[in-house]
Amino acid sequence: MTASASTSRVRLTQLVYLLVLAMVASSEGRAVEGGAGLLAQAAGFALVTAAVLGRLWTTLFIAGRKGEQLVREGPYSSCRHPLYLCSVLASLGIGLTTRSIVLTLALPAVVGAIAGIAARREDRALLQAHRADWPEYRNAVPAFWPAWSRHRMPDRVSVPPGIYRKAFLDAASFLALWLAVLLLAT
Predict the structure, then answer these.
(1) φ, ψ of residue 152 in degrees (nearest 5)
(2) I need a labelling partner for 103 at 20 to 30 A (CA). Which of 12, 19, 53, 180 fits?
């Protein structure tokens, strides 16, 4: 397996999630109990599910094209980094599932910081690769918070099955993490 530019970010994020699992497993009590705790876990599941679906949807538009062209359709027409946005949403969902106020606040902050650094690196690479088109795209499309009014859909997209399979496994790992946190937090 070869290392890519995202390998260090992925490994750091995996380490953060392993630390969360260790903290949840070693914790004796929850800050949010009873009906509020169940509501937090349900909201966590909803956010993780939305993030998984969002990552799969986003992959349809970027898969196999990221290094070749500046993608400006689908999610990338309203947000420059929708995959990172989905990761932050998933981390908020995982945090809620722990029923810990501290983890609910800290986890998306840490994942958001990691995503922010990765987004700046990605923006620099896109500037290098697409000098003529990048400045206009960067100025028109926000980095993380979607501008839904800009959303454009193509008539058709083509995705190599191998890339989509990898994206499916990546997105499904958030559901597996949610389940592990739920089991440990109960």
Answers:
(1) -130, 140
(2) 53
Q: Which amino acid is at 175?
A: L
Match 């349809």 to its residue by tokens: 60
All residues at 6 or more sequence positions from 58 whose CB lies less than 8 Å from its CB, including other chains: 74, 75, 76, 82, 83, 86
Are 100 and 180 contacting, i.e. CB atoms less than 8 angstroms apart?
no
Would you state the pLDDT for residue 105?
A: 92
The tokens 């499904």 sit on which residue?
172
Cβ proximity of 79 and 146 under 8 Å = yes
For residue 54, pLDDT beyond 90: yes
Counting residues of the chain whose pLDDT is more than 90, the rounded percentage is: 45
Residue found by looking up tokens 């994206």 in the block: 167
With CA atoms as reference, report the closest residue to 87 among 41, 50, 138.
50
Which tokens go with 78? 């309203």
| Tally of residues, the chain | 186
Q: List alpha helices for the chain, DSSP H.
A: 7-26, 34-62, 82-98, 101-129, 134-140, 161-185
Average pLDDT over residues 42-70: 88
